[in-house]
Amino acid sequence: MIAKLVSPLGSPKLAATTAQFRSFTDPIPARRASLYRRVQDTTFVLPHVPTKHNVPKYTRAEFPRKIWQTWKVNPLAFEQRDLDTARSWVGKNPSYRYEVLTDGNDMQYVEWHFGPDGFNRPDIVNFYRSVKAAIVKADLLRYLVMYAEGGLYADIDVEALKPLSKFVPERYDEGDIDMVIGVEIDEPDWKDHPILGPKSRSFCQWTFMCKPQLPVMMRLIEQIMTWLSGVAKEQGVPLAEVKLDFDQIISGTGPSAFTNAIIAEMNELNDNTGRPITWDAFHDLGESKLVSRVLVLTVEAFAAGQGHSNSGNHDARAALVKHHYHASNWPSRHPRYKHPAYGEVEQCNWVDECVKKWDENVAAWSKLSEVEQKSILAEKERKEKEREEQRKKEEEDRKKKEEEDRKKKEEEDKRKKEEEEAKAAKEKAAKEKNAGKGGEKAAKDNKS
Q1: What band does 58 get if pLDDT is binned at 50, 70 and 90?
Q2: CA 313 – CA 44 distance, rounded (Å)
Q3: Which of 32, 103, 121, 281 might form a disulfide with 116, Cβ 3.0–4.6 angstroms?
Q4: C-alpha span between 174 and 167 (Å, rounded)
Q5: Is the pLDDT of residue 11 over 90?
Q6: Please, what is the angle between helix 29-40 and helix 122-130, to 10°?
Q7: What is the Cα–Cα distance from 334 to 330, expressed in whole angstroms?
Q8: What pTM value is reported for the model?
Q9: C-alpha to C-alpha distances, 16 to 32, 198, 218, 310, nearest whole angstrom
Q10: pLDDT tens per residue across span 382-400
Q11: Element (H, E) at 203
Q12: How many Å apart are CA 82 and CA 335, to the nearest integer?
């Protein structure tokens, strides 16, 4: 409903109705528009002064039948891999609308919905315009879309395995649910680890469903604004120049921020005030669970096949999507902590023995002499060089084999072609010979 109310493509009748509503609730649009124009050229975040929105609150029981994705370009310019995943959503959900927001139209979308004739949040519009880190904008945009219009959001590299009708089990009433989310990482044994701890318990935000105008989405958006503005202040730079590492992204805008906001909202709505809701409620989740109007699905639903968190595989009955990760290259611009000798602990993929070994090595490192450390680094460099040489050799062997196979195929095709041509020529000659004999016979018959 919201999409129609604030969309330039909405019906004329509905537009007229909402125009009357805007006139009633907002008698001084020129003053607000003036404020908005002044804000456009600034780079700081304005404090939000609550005002009456001119967009009615969403009251429908069902989720909006809309699928959202975001990417650099529009679907007409998708690579084949992105087309394949996009078609999986459209193909399995033919009655749903589908839309992709791109680097070329995302700002227009935010201005339309959060500008003076939308939710009247110039601070949000200005903040989004000021941020330049692509992954921060990607995270923020999905939350803005889910607040404004709701529906289902999925990363561009996420494939639909089952239709959306399967996302809410039949035993639930859709009217009792405001969000559908799934477990992503369930490794609470590492909650106190200095690096893995904040990432050890999280819900998935590469796929989730929302009804519009949920307070949790707005609180998450505002928390991101406050957090990143604080980081910019600490670094003494504008929002556009903030530098963030991997863990800051995860905890500031990504899965950890998403998870913390949802659990806080669950506790806000929790009727049982004596027992706070913690991650314990979702650890080793064997079946979906409805908590404070949030339907939490098992890890297999959105995050199967990870190799950790008992996530199973994509053949599981509960698996609803498959994340291909081909668009998940943002860590290259926001690196993880990498120990000079032992690399990234995330490479362990939550395997207990590997993580413990990494911790032991790192702890022992600080006690080594400089000579011993240099020796370890030299050995590491030697092994890496050997691996690189081996990789290059395998690559050369692969290319050599491909070239040999190509030449072999060309020779085989040439031989077959020559055989076919020779056969055709032989058949033609035989036909001509037979035709000649037939002509001679006919001539003899005519003479006789």
Answers
A1: confident
A2: 46
A3: 32
A4: 10
A5: no
A6: 20
A7: 7
A8: 0.76
A9: 21, 49, 28, 53
A10: 988 998 999 899 989 999 9
A11: strand 201-203
A12: 25
Looking at the fold, whether 260 and 170 belong to one and the same domain comes out as: yes
Based on the domain organization, do 300 and 429 belong to the same domain?
no
392 and 323 within one domain: no
- How many domains are contained in the chain? 3
Helix pair angle (122-130, 134-148), 10° resolution: 150
Other Cβ atoms less than 10 A from the Cβ of 322: the count is 19
The CATH number assigned to the domain holding 84 equals: 3.90.550
Domain identity same for 343 and 317: no
Query: Which sign does the torsion angle of CA 91, 93, 95, 98 carry?
Result: negative
Encode pLDDT of 232-243 as tens digits.
999 999 999 999
- Strand pairing category for 207-210 and 151-154: antiparallel
Q: Are residues 420 and 358 both part of a single domain? A: no
d(CA 167, CA 133) in angstroms, rounded, equals 32
Amino acid in the structure at residue 162: K
One domain for residues 361 and 264: no
Task: Give the integer Cα–Cα distance in Å for 8 and 26.
Answer: 19
Note down the domain range covering 413.
Answer: 368-448
- Counting every residue, how long is the chain? 448
The pair of three-digit structure tokens given for residue 165, joined into one six-digit string: 């009708």
* Bridge partners of residue 211, in order along the sequence: none
368-378 exposure pattern, b = at least 16 Cβ within 10 A, e = fewer: eeeeeeeebee
What sign results for the dihedral spanned by CA atoms 131, 135, 140, 146?
A: positive
Residue ranges of the alpha helices (H) in 26-79?
Answer: 29-40
Instruction: Fill in the amino acid letter for 77.
Output: A
